Amino acid sequence: MLPPIQKSAKLANVCYDIRGPVLEKARQMEEDGHKIIKLNIGNLAVFGLEPPDEIVQDMIRNLPQAAGYTDSKGLFAPRKAIVHYTQEKRIAGVTVDDVYLGNGASELITMSMNALLNAGDEILVPAPDYPLWTASVSLSGGTPVHYLCDEANGWIPDLDDMARKITPRTKGIVVINPNNPTGALYPVEVLQAIVELARKHGLIIFADEIYDKVLYDGNVHTSIASLADDLLFVTFNGLSKNYRSCGYRAGWMIVSGDKRRARDYIEGLNMLASMRLCANTPGQLAIQTALGGYQSINDLVAPGGRLCRQRDLAHRLLTEIPGVSCVKPKAALYMFPRLDPKIYPIEDDQQFAYDLLAEEKVLIVQGTGFNYPTPDHFRLVFLPHEDDLAEAIGRIARFLGHLRRRYGTD
After folding, report:
1. CB-based contacts of 112: which residues, under 8 Å, 6+ apart?
2. Mean pLDDT of 322-348
3. N or C: which end of the chain has fewer CB within 10 A?
4. How many C-beta neighbours within 10 Å does residue 10 have?
């Protein structure tokens, strides 16, 4: 009998629970005829949040000319538009040659790690994080080291914890701002302190800014790469969230700051960009129009706008549930509520997500799926229309009521 074919050992520490085993269970239930309310993923189109029409029309018009490969870094016009965007964000010294287009920012995040890391090299990653970062570090042979974000301080990075975790093996710091999964937006003084830490230790800053326009209550986003030019920054963004275009897979990566010291690393990025030939051309064609067009995201996040209303409703309904607290998001599309362990002594939060799905047909992602160390949080996407959101959180409230009675904490 032939031996089983096993997955690569490189995948031993790779995990992506946003599309993990609980989602597989939800798919099985759907096949059995159950209707599931999905609060697990920021896939805007399925909730009726469509891309701006001018982007769609521009792609349609240009599609007949989109069958060929482009330059490995991408078409000139969208890269030039991104250079103009970096100027708006006050990131100094960016040229077209410093911009890489990708099949979403996700591809470029993995590329940035593959080009840098040797076995045992360390990258500081927030906890909680967007799990692709931890997975990409591990897949690239590196070691993700998680610094804590402080829930009591609005989920701002714990700078002392970050500093303690820097070792001679540390190569860089990942900053996810605005933050997924917490919805936090980092103050300038915190970003400046992170820059100072990176400067002191000669580290690269990897800045995930994919939600930089999804801002509530008049908040303003500062690109960390705008705060210095004497260290290396690699900044990621794209159309998926700001322009409701997840499926177009149109993302970009910008290298800025001290590029002279990073010549060999940049050569590695260029090599990997060439190996995948190019990003998809139709997605590239949407970028210039998106960045230069009417910014309809501003209407959605403004007071009374759809995303703002849904955030407010979800936060109010969640925090009315006994034993549930939640830092109100300043940005992005998610919240990361906490279940008081005295009231909900949950030991396995993946099982909690399974049980919620089985009993109430609501799909969320457990907090440990975002590399958070304790099983007392979950992430909720507040993208459904208000009626659907109220129904979903009502089901969560009912399930948590059952748990309180089960635990004898009601």
Report:
1. 136, 206, 234, 236, 253, 269
2. 95
3. N
4. 11
Q: What is the pLDDT of residue 19?
A: 60
Spatial contact of 52 and 296, defined as CB atoms under 8 Å apart: yes
Superfamily of domain 9-50+299-407: Aspartate Aminotransferase, domain 1 (3.90.1150.10)
Distance, CA of 199 to CA of 318 (rounded, Å): 41
Q: What pLDDT score was predicted for residue 102?
A: 95
Mean pLDDT of 157-186: 97
* Residue ranges covered by each domain of the chain: 9-50+299-407, 53-295
Burial group, residue 177, by CB count within 10 angstroms (0-12, 13-18, 19+): buried
**Is pTM, for the whole model, over 0.85?**
yes
In angstroms, rounded to a whole number, what is the distance separating the alpha carbons of residues 300 and 216?
Answer: 9
First to last CA, the chain: 56
The pLDDT of residue 41? 84
Q: What is the pLDDT of residue 22?
A: 82
**Model confidence over 14-37: pLDDT tens digits?**
766 556 678 888 888 888 888 888
Spatial CB neighbours of 57, under 8 Å, sequence gap ≥ 6: none
Strand blocks (E) in 311-355: 324-325, 334-335, 338-339
Percent of the chain scored above 70 by pLDDT? 99
Give the neighbor-by-neighbor strand order of the sheet with 378-381.
Answer: 334-335, 378-381, 365-366
Q: Do 9-50+299-407 and 53-295 agree at the fold level? A: no
Please, what is the angle between helix 386-407 and helix 306-319, to 10°?
Answer: 20
* Record: fold of 53-295: Aspartate Aminotransferase; domain 2 (3.40.640)
Strand partners, 175: 207
